[in-house]
Each structure stands twice: as structure tokens, then as C-alpha cells.
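Slide 14.
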Amino acid sequence: MLAIDLVDYDIPALRTTDTIAKALRLMEESRLSQLAVIADDKYLGMIEEDALLDYDEDELIGVIQPDFSGVFVLAFQHLYELLGTASRYELKVLPVLDENNVFVGSVPSTDVYQHLARQIGTYEPGAIIEMSLPNRDYSLSEISRLIESENAKVTSSYITGNTQDFTNPLRVTLKLNKTDISAIVATLERFGYIVNAAYAHAPIANGDQDRYDMLMKYLS
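Slide 15: predicted structure.
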């Protein structure tokens, strides 16, 4: 999914010729405390509601120096890149520009988070496994092969750690399409993988009580 697919054309942009009073009204109507500022369809930056409160309502937006003038996303950027920009700068809306750097519209950061949650399968039932392993041993295809041998599939995954740093281990988090993963955990450990934790909506049977207590947690 690309930025252009997520643009909410109901979100207004402020113009330098708008009054502070109009800007505050638009923010209230859109229920957003941050909006993009444009002039002749050129993106100038973002203005926060708190900044507007320092000025008389009859003054124009043009008197305020907007923030984040160099922060925006391009229409063809992927959802993952939008997430990085939104979280890095703690934006409430993401301004979107086209290939000619013309302002297209804004994407609410909440929409970015919601679409990402759908894409990585968080709304679907299934267990989550956390593993740690040396960088040199990481192979998603091999891990997936072992999981698929137990009639399950990896629906999403992410890595914590630097894949280029071979001196420190990686932490791999996997979302599966099954809740009963006792056999999967056993298979992974049999092949030398360290399973740090497993989260499932169904209890995970294990004959070894010590190992069971150490590894398994539950989500209600």
C-alpha cells in the first residue's frame, strides 16, 4: 500500500492567507491538532494548535514559521516508510507530495498504524513466537520450512537487531496462523533454535514443567 492510497482528502490544509481563527476552526472540525501549511500548492511545513494560541485570531497563518518544512512523504512511498516518518517525528498527519513536489493531501498517522496492523495480521488469530539466534544463523526460509512442517505458516515477521552486525544476536518475532504451537516450539528447539517466549490464545502443552514455565506466557 502506497501513500497516495491512504490520502484523506477531507483533511484540510492551511494556507498562508488563512486567519488564525479559521485555522483553529479547521483543526476543531477535523479533530486534529496539527495541519499542513501550503502556498500555491507548495508544502511549507506543519503547524500545531498550541502555536496558534500564541497569536491573535485575526492574524494570518503567514506570520507563523511552520515546523517540519523538510518532513513529508512522497505519493509512491510504501506504508512501512510512512510508519517510519510518522513515528520518528511524532506526526499526527503526514503531508504527501507528488513527483513534482506538489502537495497532494494528508494521511492521518492513525490510519498508517491501523493499515499496518491489518497487513501484519494482528487482527487474525494466531500465536506469536520470539526467538534469539546468532546473526549468521538467521534464515527466514529455513525457519518457515520447519514451521510449515508442522502444518502452520508464518503470516508476518520482524527482526530486532542489526542484520549487518555479526557480533550481536538477533531477536526474531513471528506471527503464525495457529494457536496450538507446542509441536512447533519443540521442532524449533530440536533444530537448535532458542525460543525465548511464546504467546497464544490456547494453552501450549508441554511435559517439562520447568521449560513450560520459563518459555510460555498467555494472552487472554
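Speaker note: The CA atoms of residues 197 and 214 lie 8 Å apart.
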